[in-house]
Write a structure and sequence with these properties.
It is a single chain. The protein is an all-alpha fold. It has two domains: about 1-90, no CATH class; about 110-165, Helix Hairpins (Orthogonal Bundle). Helix content is about 70%, strand content about 0%. It is built from seven helices and no strands. α2 (about 25-50) packs antiparallel against α3 (about 55-70), α5 packs across α7 (about 150-165) and α6 (about 125-140) runs antiparallel to α7. This is J domain-containing protein. Keywords: Membrane, Transmembrane, Transmembrane helix.
């Protein structure tokens, strides 16, 4: 019995909405539909944000901006910009989490630097020995030879600088 009641209610409501749509001008209807979609999206966004699901509310907000036809970035441009930023971050060239080492701060100890360049700390080591050991390793791992070894090359350069500072 409830199914019949609900179906009659839904059909009656649908009939009234369709009759209203048929009698209203298309310009007013378009504006009303856009406003309704925006209001519905904003309400859902607030509900999702309140429920702790902020990531689900962000697409609804972006979609509602496209519905309103706001000037500025369209939804497709925002998605393209997001993909571009992700691609650049993944390439490592514009990574926001890169560790930039200043010249005063080093993550390598002196012992590690000697081990990296395969030198004995107890021997008298000259600058030429350090430079030769550095060149020998850099020929194998230089970033021009293999782009994946750029971080290793940086570590070897840092080890050379640490040892040269210690010798001077």
């Amino acid at each position: 019995m409830n199914i019949i009641f609900y179906s009659l209610l839904i059909f009656g409501f649908s009939y009234l909405i369709l009759k209203l749509i048929a009698n209203v001008s298309s310009k007013k209807l378009s504006r009303f539909v856009r406003f309704f979609i925006f209001l519905f999206s904003a309400t859902l966004a607030l509900l999702f944000a309140f429920g702790g699901r902020f990531l689900l509310s962000l697409p609804l907000i972006l979609l509602s901006l496209g519905v309103l036809k706001l000037k500025g970035l369209t939804l497709y441009q925002i998605i393209a910009l997001y993909r571009l930023i992700q691609t650049l971050r993944m390439s490592g060239r514009f990574s926001f989490r890169q560790n930039y080492h200043s010249s005063n701060h080093s993550s390598l100890s002196l012992d590690e630097a000697y081990k990296i360049l395969n030198l004995d700390k107890n021997n008298n080591i000259t600058k030429e020995d350090v430079q030769n050991a550095h060149k020998k390793i850099q020929k194998k791992i230089h970033p021009d030879v293999s782009p994946e070894t750029s971080r290793l090359s940086t570590i070897v350069n840092e080890a050379r600088d640490i040892i040269l500072k210690n010798i001077s």
